[in-house]
Amino acid sequence: MSLLNHYRQMYEYEKYCNHKMLDMIDTVPEASRADARFQQAVTLADHMAAGREKWLEYMEGKSTGRLVWRNDQCELATLRPRFARVEQLWTDYLARLEQDQLAQRFDLIDESNGNRYPWPIETIIVQMIGHAPYHRGQVVMLVDQLGGETVDTDYAGWWWHNVKQKS
User: Fold this and answer.
1) By CB distance 3.0 to 4.6 Å, which of 74, 95, 115, 117 could disulfide with 110?
2) Which residues contact 133 (CB under 8 A, 6 or more apart)?
3) What CA dihedral angle connects 96, 103, 159 and 162, to 10 degrees?
4) Do 94 and 88 meet the contact criterion of CB atoms below 8 Å apart?
5) What is the pTM assigned to this prediction?
6) Where are the domains of the chain?
7) CA angle 79, 80, 86 (to 5 degrees)
8) What is the CATH architecture assignment of 3-166?
9) Which whole-number Å values give the CA distances from 23 to 67, 101, 152, 156, in the listed order?
10) 22 close to 55: Cβ distance less than 8 angstroms
């Protein structure tokens, strides 16, 4: 498998995990949703979607500077449609990306001071895939503390059911 195809496969796993994370948040009992930890879980999930949107805008040279990395006021009802849209954008992007483009650089512009930081596309793909479990782990812990149901999103289980069974 090529490195690019590996990243595509990892993104399929990422989408699976995103859906499981949103399912977990939905299981938090209504009585616990007024707790600040519930908003923290929703905000973390929103941050994951926002990061994917922003990175893709930068990578495609389309950054408007309007997207925020973190919205502490986001609402649960906005998450599923946002993730669906972002996941489709990333799936399409990865499908048209060529192996030699992984090394291409794009500029991240610090919106606070205008400084430019060059990043290779591959670095951000790895960041996206590698950083998500950190935040999903935080969400899982919060959901558990709030009395919601958590599920296992280990890669090995996903791989066995979604990759191994097809080969």
Assistant:
1) 115
2) 17
3) 0
4) no
5) 0.90
6) 3-166
7) 85
8) Up-down Bundle (1.20)
9) 25, 35, 12, 20
10) no
Gap between the Cα atoms of 5 and 63, Å rounded: 26
Tokens 């707790």 map to which residue?
Answer: 35
The rounded distance, in Å, linking the Cα atoms of 129 and 9 is 11
Residue-wise pLDDT tens for the chain (167 aa)? 899 999 999 999 999 999 999 999 999 999 999 999 999 999 999 999 999 998 898 888 887 666 667 788 899 999 999 999 999 999 999 999 999 999 999 888 777 788 888 999 999 999 988 899 999 999 999 999 999 999 999 999 999 988 777 76
Question: Which residues lie below 8 Å from residue 102, measured CB to CB, with a gap of 6+?
Answer: 3, 4, 120, 121, 122, 125
Residue 72 identity: D
